[in-house]
């Protein structure tokens, strides 16, 4: 029997974990699998090991594990596979297939633009700070540069900047201060982040302390959007066609 295990990042803020669970619940009807479970890499329960155990208890003989993450970086490449290896040792007859994160997708760019429109009508000379979580993996910056390029193409805006909340340069604070010093008329701060967490709360505190005459809008994080749900469901379908993972003995 087939099961799908959605692996979320997890957050110290309970609201973030609840948002992830609600997102998965809304996406499950798009996926054809009798068993569907949610788990977290860290900071929330159930763990990946507990998620696999739940699937097996319900009769799963095959698990499609899909990382519910925006970009491919250390978590998707190393941390999650390591946890799958550990858990799979307990179930040697279990077939496990592993999918990929949401990745760079033009329809997610559309959601970012929607978040801007929610905040305010967009002026033609608006400045934008796209904010990523950040990672030590160099692929993160490559992906974010591609996101910035797609964003420029779709919005036709020219003053687009990038800042990261951790592990990458320029930092969010440095990029924001640089932008404020340029005295923009209208500034959108657009988080490329799925759910509420410690980092989004820190952004809110930083923006509240700004001293500027600019019209500043901190946009809502991505959160649940049917478009992203459809992409996640597509990642499940893709992963279902992948070769099973060969786990080390």
UniProtKB/TrEMBL annotation:
InterPro entries: CbiX-like, Sirohydro_Cobaltochel/CbiX. SUPFAM superfamilies: Chelatase (SSF53800). It comes from the Bacteria. GO terms for molecular function: lyase activity; metal ion binding. Keywords: Lyase, Metal-binding. Coiled coil: none annotated. Pfam families: CbiX (PF01903). The keyword Ribonucleoprotein does not apply. This is Sirohydrochlorin chelatase. It comes from Domibacillus epiphyticus. The lineage of its organism: Bacteria, Bacillati, Bacillota, Bacilli, Bacillales.
